[in-house]
Amino acid sequence: TQENTDLQSQPPPEEHCYGATAAHVRQGPFASVSSISPTKRDYFTAAVLCYANLINFMDWFIVPGILLDIQKYFELSDGDTGLLQTVFILSYMLTAPVFGYFGDRYNRKIILGAGIFFWSGVTLGSSFISELNYWLFFLSRGLVGIGTASYSTIAPTIIADLFEEGTRTTMLSVFYIFIPVGSGLGYVLAAGMAEVTDDWHWAFRITPCMGGLALILLILLVPHKIQRRTAAHRALSISSTTRVAAEKPDVHRTAKTTWCQDVISLAKNWSFVWSSLGLTAMAFITGALGMWVPLFLYRAQVVQGTVSPCLQETCNSSNSLIFGGITVGTGILGVISGAEAARRLRKINNKADPLLCATSMFISALCLYIALMVAQKDILSTFIFIAFGELFLSVNWAVVTDILLYVVTPRRQSTAIALQILVSHLLGDAGSPYLIGTISSAIQSKNPFSLQWSFWSMQYSFIVCAFVAVFGGGFFLLTSFYIEEDHREAER
Fold first, then answer.
1. CATH number, domain at 201?
2. Minimal CA–CA distance to 60: which of 87, 99, 80?
3. For residue 433, is it within any domain?
4. 243: Cβ–Cβ under 8 A, 6 or more apart, which residues?
5. Host domain of residue 385
6. How far is CA 436 from the centre of its chain?
7. Please, are residues 8 and 233 in contact by the beta-carbon 8 Å criterion?
8. Burial 50-68 (b: 16+ CB within 10 A, else e)
9. Angstrom distance (rounded) from CA 388 to CA 289
10. 468/322 same-domain check
11. How many domains does the chain have?
12. pLDDT digit string (tens) for 32-77?
């Protein structure tokens, strides 16, 4: 039709139309759903997704919050203890592409509900495992990763479909704030329950109850079907009848597109590739820090003589509580400031997003290195520099996701997020807790046992994180070389 011809001949958007601003051009409103002014139900849906994301990451970081007790209960070495988180992440990342495939093609609400139910049930069951069945505890953490993957892959795409323009960036920022908030509260919950009940098993019995509430809210408040935005929705002036006709070819192409074709297309998108590797560096660091920082601080305090070694009694959980609080505070501040800085800077520079990420990674590397070096002499300074390191890491969470959403065509976004999860966890936090623990165990095995070497072994192994942060900054710098071209290509 003449209207379709006019639609195809429309000029491309200006280069400054980046981030969430680009969503208006590439993901215009529907005829049947008013996306210009989000409804109350849209916000209720986003609130439910944020709440479930909170529980998701609380459950993720329960184990690090009571790591000393678990290590003592199952009599695990540093290397074996690091494997706990590795099993979880491996399961999470290997199943993420599967859920990304289904999320682009089938009902996302059903997939989300099944994932929440599954991970809540397995977490509850893991609280009843005895010390003789340590392998079963490892298996349970792997199964929890499957449920977590179903949620983390799909939830951001629903928010991207519900909102546009500046609202989308804001809602994604709120969603990703709950990554550090949930992580920090996971430490607080685990340490608090272990201290109150004098039994660390109770830490695994709270999040399943919260997951049950999330499932009920999902059923009651989230629409059964949420219409997906596609390239056919760019036009704002065409009639409802023409818009529906324009949608059909795109929906057909989406159904016929194979997963392999999507992967090949994404592999040619250099902005997606380099930003995913930058996110991988972030995941490596956060995985290592999240698993080992409380234990590292405990060993530093033992060497200083301010804390006695825990041999039989329940281990002191103050470091987990403090680190959890730091994670919550720096996470909220970092995500908000990162989103706001990106929003302002991209008005004057199309490459602002990757350059912001690169700068924050370099600063984080410096802060983490200083924190490691001063740990034996000044524990307060260590907490301060760890806080700054986490703050600058948190700056990137929402920005990296926004990069993906404007350099990848909408009909491939679930697959892109799933692949990003796979790569970032495969090369990032799937191996970093185990790698740090293995290096620490290797150093200890080559030296006589002492409290001093127990601390040094962890300190030396942790230095790897500072170097990985530098590499991450380099990957984001490479992203800046391609982001303008890839953005224009996604618009076309």
1. 1.20.1250.20
2. 87
3. yes
4. 30, 31, 232, 233, 235
5. 261-491
6. 20
7. no
8. bbbbbbbbbbbbbbbbbbb
9. 13
10. yes
11. 2
12. 334 445 688 888 888 889 898 898 888 888 888 888 888 888 888 8
